[in-house]
Backbone:
């Protein structure tokens, strides 16, 4: 094979069976006498490997833990290996026996070591304090001592010279023959020296320079400095490594090695190139390698084997990349077989082989154990390292993250509150300690019980051969039944072309084998939070979030919502609103209309509900909705955003959260935030979604609003009318006010709010007030009854008396809810239990309403309770020691506020009996159903939002239980992306210390009139997005853009003048994007015939999208160089292009080419990959016709609803960022169609297009139109390869593509090397 034939031979994870458990590799080397590869990782483990077949993992030979800190350097000797770690230097035999070891103090660790390249018998080591030592490698004896430069990071011992490179960029040459005296020195870099290499008398050095503006962060120097070791004062010509404008490789040299007349230079990205030594490194060599490192990893070790036939690159993800220039590479020059046993240094017999069997003296330590005869066996020995992990007993337990999160350091000692979760000086392992140990320190996040032992990542499932299955086949809308309230919902049509089978067969987005939907209980043994109610966290592999298998956490047909985005605490409320059939139908009807408001919450809710209804159990996320929510000024003013709530939350909410969350929580109470956000959603949608009065039934219209042009309907789905009467006890003046209440705030079970309200007037004594409080009902029905008709006393201004008086305010319900009744639970401290502890007084916080201004804090005595405590209660138990009623009857007495008992709430003895029959039995059957709907009705529990406060696993989070619409007797749990069936007892029983209810939704069982109103709205405004958005596209931003273009013709701005070469003159821009033209940018709208194909479900298109980065990835970098990804970068859609794929004259012509206006700050435009420049997405500056995100999303939603077939490259990532779920049957992903099952590497679109058409794309910046057209042509080539051919015909094509790509190292001819 020629010099251009370097290919990736294999990849090897330095872990037994788990990629996430791999330690970063900091040292790698190859033996000079045998076929052994040495690796040293950050855990102090030295491992040896031998080569295997191409593509197969390396064979592990030995693995020993030889150091307590990271191994920095490994240098193979004859039959031993020299190892330098931070705390020790040692020589170890290939069999694992330690020849000698020298250690140092923890504060003065070894920083550099160099083995003599001439004799291999001596090594020089130095510490951070500048103490140098010359060691004899045979005996470990100290030969010489010397004082050298402090913080020397690299060393080189050759040609009777010692060259040191320090952290301040200095090169020093010392003479070993004269007590290591300094001969000469030179400053090569302003930052630390990274590595050194020597050829003859030339020294090659790479390092770093100080950052821009003299910052403390060093930046890799793009040059390799060259010196003559005999004269450092006159540097030679440096090796320039600066990349060209179109070069994708960023020069960051950090490793150097001389081999075979060439200088190998390896960069941080893993890319390694060669320079010829004959030219002093000025001429390019013919060899290079380019390993595909993880996005969040970088090169940590590099080595060229002594034979020059293989290159070893290790990264911080624990992956060893092996590249080879030969099909059967040899590591050593001799090419001998690996011998991992110790050599026989001194034999008593001069003959070879040495004596064997019984003739071997047992006490002679100079004879190797290999001389002992072994029986002839065919099976592997037990001493051979296998891939199976052995159980060695209980490990040391890990500290709870909740304790570490509240840790405060003082004088190098950490202090944290005792959570009192276990006994003092004892550690409880539990039954799952083995599972926690397998996950290391992340064992607290182990979800083995939920995933049934399967890997969380799709890439590992494919590597381990775990089976996958498609998503559930059901696609109907919940609660619709095909023609109910929604009247919409059809399954996607079957695939129509030859690529359907291949796309589904090669798809990497499959889910594991179907698991039976097991109904789980609510509590775990011992009062612990069960796994399915703990906070769900997404794990990230080297392939990003797309590699996470969400289907392991959902075995139902309902879709969950991901919680790794800001303000994701709203997921529970969004699921609650989605399962409210009438509200969902109204939002769907509204979003399909022509709402011009870009930040309309009703439209965003409707689009999200449509995605959840058609996702078929696939995981979704509400990024667009939550992004619109964060941009609403009302949400920020009400402190509904997580990033603002830390400083603006109400005092009651902060106090309750700090007390209720346990030790050191101090965060906002999500239970109260959920109640505020629920009220905000209902109020905003009630104002945004209004329908014409003429389209509603006559009996729906109110007498005082019959002449209004539009009516609000959301207020009839949720809530009830309320009458408020304020009376002055002195002048007897009364004022009445009518209002609508979306939710009712319950009082605490102790009646603390009532006691504080009575005592505020000063008319009664404390003893009498407590007596009145204890006489009240303490069960849930009594709380509901008191909350619907309550009497409060407040000090306010009386307009008649002209002074402040103690005014009595009476609030009562005037009509039973016709839809849903929402109950808000107050957030209580754990000390406010009904049972009390020892009858002692406790201080609690009462907040009966999140929006109430008169929330008070009162001292509550722990009296006796009239309810029984559950088995899960303890001394720190929940404040709600009761069971929620699943069904109750509500009767509202007609009349004014003078009625003594206006509201009656009673339990239902026979839940199977209808409310109409019960009312007829009580009143003799004389009451018509319409009057019954106003006077009262039967209400059934349909949803419950709860707050989970588990200090062991992190902050508070919300879950929601809803009734299954397909089986009203069953319940479903939604915990972000986890969806599981649960029992009803686990929902209604409020006995767990870690759970507090937040919102309970009761539905009126008689909603016929409300259903008729919603049906009338859906009949006049069905959910059907008009195809006019594709035939005559317009945007609300067109008028602003047109006005700006007219201003540019008169006086171009600075931005226009500075980008004149790219954008052209203002007049040409005006002619291109004429305001009266039907074209948007480069897109030609659909014709009527094409719109007909779209409505019939026969339309195809090729799609591509470009994105910008709104927020960079959040990760943690540790001292050893490893990185932990906490959140991936947040992308936003910048440009969406779609071209026709149905043939004809306009085949391949775009019909969508929209630039999305973005008002938020952009962290990275990624111009090289997106083609987006500064100002392209800003209204008033952009040279393009911009569109809002909602307008672009509705176009994409219309294509998905019309069963349009999408052709693209990497569609999974595109659809994820666009926040839309597309069935697999409608996707034709060329990245998956052209991926061989035997190869991990996906093929780029650029290479596929060049392979089939010998043309290049993406030569400069990416263009979504160009990429979509190229994808369409590549897909057409795929169809030609499979149409009319055997099923395995594509396999030969794939083999040919991978062969050509490997020979070219996946570099196109126009790419510079």
Residues:
């Amino acid at each position: 094979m020629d010099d251009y034939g370097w290919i990736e031979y294999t990849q090897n994870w330095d872990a037994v069976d788990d990629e996430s458990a791999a330690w970063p590799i900091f040292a790698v080397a190859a033996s000079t006498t045998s076929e052994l590869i040495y690796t040293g990782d950050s855990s102090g483990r030295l491992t040896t490997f031998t080569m295997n077949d191409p593509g197969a993992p390396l064979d592990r030979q030995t693995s020993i833990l030889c150091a307590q800190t990271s191994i920095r350097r490994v240098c193979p000797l004859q039959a031993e290996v020299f190892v330098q770690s931070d705390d020790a230097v040692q020589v170890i035999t290939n069999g694992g026996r330690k020849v000698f070891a020298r250690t140092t103090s923890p504060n003065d660790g070894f920083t550099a070591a160099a083995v003599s390249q001439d004799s291999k018998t001596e090594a020089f080591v130095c510490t951070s304090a500048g103490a140098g030592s010359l060691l004899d490698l045979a005996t470990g004896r100290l030969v010489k001592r010397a004082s050298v430069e402090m913080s020397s990071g690299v060393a080189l011992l050759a040609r009777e010279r010692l060259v040191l490179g320090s952290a301040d960029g200095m090169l020093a040459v010392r003479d070993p023959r004269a007590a290591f005296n300094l001969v000469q020195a030179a400053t090569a870099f302003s930052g630390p020296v990274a590595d050194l290499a020597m050829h003859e008398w030339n020294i090659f050095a790479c390092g770093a320079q100080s950052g821009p503006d003299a910052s403390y962060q060093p930046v890799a120097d793009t040059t390799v400095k060259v010196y003559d070791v005999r004269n450092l004062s006159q540097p030679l010509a440096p090796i320039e490594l600066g990349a060209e404008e179109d070069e994708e490789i960023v020069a960051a040299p950090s490793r150097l090695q001389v081999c075979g007349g060439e200088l190998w230079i390896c960069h941080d990205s893993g890319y390694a190139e060669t320079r010829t030594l004959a030219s002093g490194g000025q001429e390019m060599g013919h060899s290079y390698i380019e390993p595909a490192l993880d996005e969040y990893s970088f090169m940590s070790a590099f080595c060229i084997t002594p034979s020059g036939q293989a290159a070893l690159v290790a990264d911080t993800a624990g992956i060893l990349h092996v590249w080879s220039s030969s099909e059967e590479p040899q590591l050593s020059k001799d090419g001998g077989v690996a011998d991992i046993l110790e050599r026989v240094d001194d034999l008593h017999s001069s003959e070879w082989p040495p004596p064997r069997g019984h003739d071997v003296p047992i006490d002679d330590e100079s004879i190797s154990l290999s001389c002992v005869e072994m029986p002839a066996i065919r099976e592997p020995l037990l001493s051979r390292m296998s891939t199976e992990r052995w159980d060695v007993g209980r490990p040391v337990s890990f500290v709870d993250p909740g304790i570490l999160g509240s840790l405060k350091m003082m004088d190098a000692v950490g202090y944290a509150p005792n959570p009192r979760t276990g006994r003092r000086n004892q550690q409880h392992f539990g039954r799952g300690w083995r599972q926690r140990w397998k996950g290391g320190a992340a064992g607290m996040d182990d979800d083995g019980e939920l995933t049934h032992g399967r890997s969380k990542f799709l890439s590992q499932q494919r590597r381990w051969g775990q089976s996958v299955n498609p998503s559930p086949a059901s696609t109907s809308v919940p609660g619709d039944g095909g023609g109910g309230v929604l009247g919409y919902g059809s399954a996607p049509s079957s695939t129509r072309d030859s690529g359907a089978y291949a796309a589904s067969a090669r798809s990497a987005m499959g889910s594991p084998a179907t698991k039976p939907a097991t109904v789980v209980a609510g509590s775990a043994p011992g009062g612990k939070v069960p796994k399915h109610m703990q906070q769900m966290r997404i794990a990230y592999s080297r392939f990003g979030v797309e590699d996470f298998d969400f289907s392991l956490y959902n075995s139902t047909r309902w879709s969950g919502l991901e919680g790794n985005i800001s303000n994701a605490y709203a997921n529970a409320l969004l699921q609650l609103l989605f399962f409210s059939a009438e509200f969902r139908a109204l939002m769907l009807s509204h979003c399909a209309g022509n709402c011009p408001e870009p930040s309309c919450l009703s439209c965003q809710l409707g689009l999200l509900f449509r995605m959840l209804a058609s996702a078929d159990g696939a995981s979704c996320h509400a990024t667009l909705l939550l992004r619109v929510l964060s941009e609403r000024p009302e949400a920020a003013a009400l402190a509904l955003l997580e990033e603002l709530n830390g400083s603006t939350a109400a005092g009651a909410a902060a106090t309750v959260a700090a007390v209720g969350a346990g030790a050191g929580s101090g965060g906002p109470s999500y239970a109260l935030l959920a109640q505020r956000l629920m009220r905000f959603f209902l109020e905003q949608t009630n104002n945004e979604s209004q329908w014409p009065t003429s389209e509603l039934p006559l009996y729906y219209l109110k007498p005082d609003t019959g002449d209004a042009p539009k009516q609000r309907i959301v207020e009839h789905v949720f809530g009830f009318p309320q009458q408020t009467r304020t009376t002055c006890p002195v002048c007897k003046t009364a004022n009445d006010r009518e209002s609508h209440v979306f939710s009712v705030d319950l009082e605490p079970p102790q009646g603390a709010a009532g006691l504080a309200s009575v005592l505020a007037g000063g008319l009664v004594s404390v003893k009498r007030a407590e007596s009145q409080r204890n006489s009240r009902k303490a069960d849930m029905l009594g709380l509901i009854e008191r909350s619907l008709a309550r009497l409060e006393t407040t000090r306010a201004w009386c307009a008649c008396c002209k002074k402040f008086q103690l005014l009595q305010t009476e609030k009562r319900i005037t009509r039973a809810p016709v839809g849903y009744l929402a109950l808000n639970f107050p957030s209580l401290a754990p000390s406010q239990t009904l049972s009390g502890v020892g009858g002692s007084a406790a201080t609690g916080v009462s907040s009966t309403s999140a929006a109430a201004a008169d929330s008070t804090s009162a001292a509550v005595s722990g009296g006796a309770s009239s309810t029984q405590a559950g088995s899960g209660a303890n001394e720190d138990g929940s404040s709600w020691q009761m069971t929620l009623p699943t069904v109750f009857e509500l009767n509202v007495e007609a009349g004014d506020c003078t009625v003594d008992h206006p509201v009656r709430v009673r339990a239902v003895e026979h839940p199977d009996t209808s409310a109409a029959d019960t009312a007829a039995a009580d009143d003799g059957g004389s009451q018509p159903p319409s009057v019954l709907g106003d006077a009262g009705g039967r209400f059934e529990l349909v949803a419950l939002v709860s707050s989970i406060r588990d200090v062991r696993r992190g902050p508070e989070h919300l879950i929601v239980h809803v009734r299954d619409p397909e089986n009203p007797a069953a319940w479903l749990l939604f915990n972000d992306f986890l969806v599981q069936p649960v029992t009803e007892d686990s929902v209604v029983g409020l006995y767990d210390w870690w759970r507090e209810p937040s919102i309970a939704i009761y539905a009126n069982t008689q909603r016929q009139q409300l259903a008729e109103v919603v049906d009338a709205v859906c009949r006049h405004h069905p959910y059907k997005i008009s195809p006019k958005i594709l035939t005559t596209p317009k945007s609300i931003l067109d008028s602003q853009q047109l006005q700006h273009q007219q201003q540019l013709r008169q006086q171009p701005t600075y931005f226009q003048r500075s980008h004149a070469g790219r954008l052209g003159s203002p007049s040409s821009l005006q002619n291109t994007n004429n305001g009266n033209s039907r074209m948007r940018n480069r897109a030609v709208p659909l014709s009527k015939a094409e719109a007909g194909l779209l409505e019939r479900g026969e339309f195809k298109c090729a799609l591509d999208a470009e994105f910008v980065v709104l927020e960079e990835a959040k990760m943690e970098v540790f001292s050893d160089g490893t990185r932990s990804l906490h959140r991936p970068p947040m992308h936003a859609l910048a440009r969406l292009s779609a071209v026709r794929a149905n043939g004809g004259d306009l085949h391949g012509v775009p019909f969508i080419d929209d630039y999305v206006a973005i008002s938020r700050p952009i962290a990275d435009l990624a111009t090289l990959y997106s083609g987006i420049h500064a100002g392209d997405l800003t209204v008033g500056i952009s040279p393009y016709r911009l569109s809002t995100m909602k307008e672009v999303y509705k176009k994409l939603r219309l294509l998905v609803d019309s069963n349009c077939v999408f052709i693209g490259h990497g569609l999974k990532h595109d659809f994820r960022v666009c926040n839309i779920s597309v069935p697999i049957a409608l996707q034709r992903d060329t990245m998956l169609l052209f991926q061989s099952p035997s190869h991990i590497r996906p093929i780029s679109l650029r290479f596929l297009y060049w392979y089939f058409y010998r043309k290049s794309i993406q030569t400069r910046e990416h263009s979504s139109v160009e990429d979509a057209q190229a994808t369409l042509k590549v897909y057409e080539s795929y169809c030609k390869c499979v149409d009319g051919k055997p099923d395995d015909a594509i396999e030969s094509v794939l083999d040919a593509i991978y062969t050509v790509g490997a020979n070219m190292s996946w570099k196109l001819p126009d790419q510079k090397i």
About this structure: The chain has 34 helices and 60 strands. The first helix runs from residue 401 to 405. The chain has a mean pLDDT of 77. The longest strand covers residues 936-948.
